[in-house]
Amino acid sequence: MTNQHDAPTRESAKVWQSVSRLRLTVDQPDPSVLSARDGLFLAGHLEGTDAPGSAQVRVQVSGGDPVTAAMTPPAPGEVAEGVSWSAYVDVSQLDPGPALLTVVATVHSQSDVVRRQLLVEPSEATRTGGSGFLDVPEDESTIDGDVLLVRGWCLFEDSHVARVEVLLDGVRVGRARLYVDVIVPGSEHKDATVAGFEAFVNVRHLRRGRTSLVSVEATSLKGERWAPAAHTVIWDTPEPLPTADLETVAARNAAVLAEVHSTRSHVVVFTHDLGYGGGQLWLLEILREVQAHKGLGCRVISLADGPLRETLETMGISVHVTTHTPVKNAFSYEGRVHELALLIKSSNGGVVVANTLTVFAAIEAAQRAEVPSLWAIHESIDFGVYCYMAWGPDGFDPRARERVEASFKQPKGLVFEASRTAELFSELRAAAPNYVVDYGVDIDEIDEYRRSVQRAELRTSAGFDEADKVVLVMGTFEPRKAQAAIVAVFDELLVVHENVHLVLVGENGSHYAVALETQISRTRCNSHIRVIPVTSNIYPWYELSDLLLCASDMESLPRSIIEAMAFELPVVSTDVYGIADLIDDGKTGWLTRDRDLEALAGLLHLVLQKPGSELKRVAMAAQAIAHNRHGSQSYGKLLVRALLGLRKDPEFDVGSVLPLLESPNQP
C-alpha cells in the first residue's frame, strides 16, 4: 500500500500527483485563497479507481474530528472518470492563524491511499480581493437621530459574497443584508444586478463619542476579503419643537368628536393592505370567525387595496380603502388621527383591531374615540429602524413620533406571533399587557387537498423526475426574503448536487424581481431554477417539493413554514425571531445564521445529503407540531372571544382568553 504526503502550501496546484494510481483534486474552493471564518465547503474529484463504491474521502482540520465526505458516482449513462466528493468542515473554534487541512482518499478494494495537505486561514488571517464602494454614510457626514444607514456594493471576480460585517469604531455591530438590487454598470458578473448590501443599525445604546468611524468588511465564499476605507460620521441631536399649538388643535378636535353618537356594536379593523401576505391572511381567519357570530357587525379600513377586498365584500364585510398616515408634519398627523377617530365612531365601533405596525394611528384614534383596542404586531423590526426605513432620517416629525411611541401603552393588549418579536418593543410596550398567540393555517383544508392529489402526478406535470430534488422558496420577491442570495447559493451547490432544482414562488414585477431574473440568467444553474409569479394556488408546490428553504433576515412567524410543516415538507431556514420558536434545530427542521451565504450553503449541502428516512422523520415531527399548535381555528376563536369581551366591557380581562407573555418587562 502506498502512503504519500505532500508538503502543505497555500499556492500549490489543485491536483497533487503521487506514485499511487489515485488522483485526488480539490476543486472548490481554490487553494490559493483558502480561508474561512466559520465553515469551509470543499468539493473535488477522485480518479484512478476501478471500484468507486469502495472509495472514501475524509477531511480533517488541525487534529479535529475527521469529516467523511459525500461521494457522488457518475450518473447512469454519464461518461466520467472517478467519483465526485464534497464536505463541509466547521472551523469556527480554531485559534487565529494558519491551520493544517488534511484530505485523505482511500479505496479499500485497491489497498490504496492518497493524502493532500493544505493551509486554511480562519479568523483574522485574510487575503484581500474584490471591488466595491461604501456609498452611505458619506465621509464627514452628519447623522441626526439614533439610526445609522450603511449601504454600498461589492463583487468578487470569481466568487459570491458570503457576508458583509458592519463595524462602528472597530466593533462589529451586525451583518448587512446581502444581494440588494444595486446594479454595477458595465459588469457581466453573475451578481452585478444584485451587488448591493445595506444595514440599518440602531445606535441608541452603543457607546460613541462626538464622531465615529464606520467601516465594512466583506468576505467571499473563497475566503477573499474586501474592506474599503472607513468613513467618519458626526453625531447630532436635533432641537425639540414646540407643542403648545398642537395641543390646542387636539383639544378642539376632541370637542367635535364628542358630538358624534355611536352604538358601539361593531368590530372596526385597520390593516395595512389587502394583498396575499401573511399578516393579511392571518387577519382573514379572524374575520371569518367574526362573521360566524350573528349580530356582530364588522368594517375593515385598509391603507391600500388588494385582491382580498373582493373576498371580504363577498363575506358581507364593509371595506373602506384610505391612504397612509402623514407623519412629516405633526399637525397633519393630528388631523389624520382625528379623522380616523370620527370614522371609528361613525362605524359604531365597539372594539378596534389594528393589524400590523403600519396602522399605528388607529390605536391613538381608538383612544380618542374611547373604544378599547388590540394591536397585532407582526413585524420583527426595531421601531427606530422601522421609522427610518419608511420615512428616512427626517421624514417623521419628532412630535408625531413621540405620540406614536406613547400609543404602544394604550391598547388593552399587544398581540405578537413570537416572544422574540415582542422583545424588540420592550422599551415601548411596558405598560400594556402583551400576548403571544400562535399563528395558524387551515390544517383541515391542507389535509383534504393532500388526500385529493397524487404527488407523483404533480411532479410529472411540473416536469420533475423522481430523482430530482425540488427545493421550494415561497414568498413575494423582496430583499429581506433573500431570493438573490439563494440563487447565489445554488450556483455553488450545483457543482455537487446536479439533480437539485429551485422553485421561487412570488415573482411580483418589482425592481428587485427584474434584477433577480438577470442574476438567474447569468448563473451556471439557470436551467434548474423556475420562477413562478405571485399566486393563490400554492398548495401544489408544497406537495410536489422535497424541501422548503427560507433565507429571510426579517420574519416573525412565516406562514410558509407552517404550511410546509403541515404538508410534511422538511424545512431549512435562518433562525431569525419566531422561526427559532417554531423549529427545533435538527428535530423538526434545520436552522442557520441569517445574512451568511457560507453558513446557508454549508447547511443546505448537508441536508441535501441526508437519507430519505431522516428527512421523513423530521418532516413528520414538524407536521405533528403544525397540527397541535398552529390550526387556524384555535387562534381565530381565541381572538374573537377577546373582541367580544371588550365590546361588551371595555375593562374585560383579555388575559383570561389570550396567553400572557412571560417577560421581565411585564408589569
Description:
28% of the residues lie in helices and 28% in strands. The chain is α/β, with parallel strands linked by helices and 667 residues long. The chain has 4 domains: 15-120, Immunoglobulin-like; 127-236, Immunoglobulin-like (Sandwich), CATH 2.60.40.650; 246-440 and 634-656, 3-Layer(aba) Sandwich (Rossmann fold), CATH 3.40.50; 443-629, Rossmann fold. α4 runs parallel beside α7 (398-407). Mean pLDDT is 85; it is low at 1-19, 30-38, 122-127 and 663-667.
Using the coordinates above, name the CATH class of the largest domain.
Alpha Beta
Alpha carbon gyration radius? 28 Å
Based on Cα principal axes, name the global outline.
globular
Distance between the terminal alpha carbons, to the nearest Å?
73 Å
**Strand portion:** 25-35%
- Helix count equals 18
Average pLDDT taken over every residue? 85
Looking at the overall shape, the CATH architecture of the largest domain is 3-Layer(aba) Sandwich
Report the structural category.
Answer: alpha/beta
Total beta strands: 33
Poorly predicted runs of 5 or more residues: 1-19, 30-38, 122-127, 663-667
Largest sheet: 7 strands, mixed
CATH topology of the largest domain: Rossmann fold
Number of domains: 4
CATH superfamily of the largest domain: Glycogen Phosphorylase B
User: Helix proportion of residues, in percent?
Assistant: 25-40%
